[in-house]
Amino acid sequence: MGDAVSNHIAASARISPLALIEESTRGSRLDVGELAFIDAFVAIKFVGGSGDITIGAETYLNAGTVVYSGNGVTLGSCVMVAANCTFAATNHAFARRDVPMIRQRFQPSRGGILVEDDVWIGANCVLLDGAILRRGCIVGANSVVSGELAPFSINVGSPARFVRWRPDGAGP
Ligand SMILES: CC(C)(COP(=O)(O)OP(=O)(O)OC[C@H]1O[C@@H](n2cnc3c(N)ncnc32)[C@H](O)[C@@H]1OP(=O)(O)O)[C@@H](O)C(=O)NCCC(=O)NCCS
User: Fold this and answer.
1) Measured from the CB, is residue 154 less than 6 Å from ligand 1?
2) Contact, 44 vs 21, CB < 8 A?
3) 138 lines ligand 1 (CB under 6 A)
4) Domain membership flag for residue 123
5) Is 157 in the pocket of ligand 1 (CB under 6 A)?
């Protein structure tokens, strides 16, 4: 069972022996880039769709974060994911009341989750199917993201709302 041979983990990536990386059962691919870090008690689970999971170079997933493959999860490079975040790239179907939701499969894809390069996601955040986090944005602790966050924006809350832009300290 499974399709683990399609997974690719770069030689320089560090995966804690206490992380759980399940085997793909739907042909989904896991790709972990150079110098990525996956901490203890991170769980990568192939459920709720046939999307791939891509974790870019130098991207950090801290302890307790769970990634559900669903309709696909793409994390760019130099992304920082703090502890206990959930990437929920799938939704249960619930259109019928006479059938338990557990037997109704999943809703159509909203496009999966895309996190571009150099994003910081604070602790305890939940990212939903269709979330797009553009380059350089920040998500404050305990936020829920379902839509698109602008490049270099700072966003907090549930639902996550824009609070201000990151400064550009580059100078003249
Ligand atoms: C978002 C964050 C980065 C601060 O950004 P900031 O632009 O400096 O924001 P400020 O502190 O000026 O706060 C702006 C407003 O957002 C509110 N706010 C800040 N963080 C918030 C959060 N996580 N949830 C809800 N509201 C928050 C502030 O109370 C403030 O509200 P006000 O304008 O009504 O007073 C920080 O608050 C945060 O959440 N950091 C995550 C820390 C973390 O998870 N670390 C894990 C280890 S990496």
Assistant:
1) yes
2) yes
3) yes
4) yes
5) yes
Can you give the pLDDT at residue 2? 45
If DSSP codes are grouped into helix, strand and coil, which group holds residue 164? Answer: strand
How high is the mean pLDDT of the chain? 95
- Number of domains within the chain: 1
What are the pLDDT digits (tens) for 73-109?
Answer: 999 999 999 999 999 999 999 999 999 999 999 999 9
Which atom of ligand 1 sits closest to the CA of residue 122? 44
Q: Whose alpha carbon is nearest atom 33 of ligand 1?
A: 163
Angle at 91 between CA 78 and CA 153, to 5 degrees: 35
Which range of residues forms the domain containing residue 142?
Answer: 8-165
pLDDT digits (tens, 9 = 90+) for 29-57: 999 999 999 999 999 999 999 899 999 99
Nearest residue (by CA) to ligand 1, atom 18, is 156
> Which residue puts its alpha carbon closest to atom 1 of ligand 1?
140
* The overall pTM is greater than 0.70: yes
Is 2 a member of any domain? no
Residue 67 lies in a domain: yes
Separation of alpha carbons 33 and 59, rounded Å: 8
In a domain, 107, yes or no: yes
64 touches ligand 1 (CB under 6 Å)? no
- Tell me: pLDDT of 3 over 50: no
Query: What is the Cα–Cα distance from 56 to 46, expressed in whole angstroms?
Result: 18
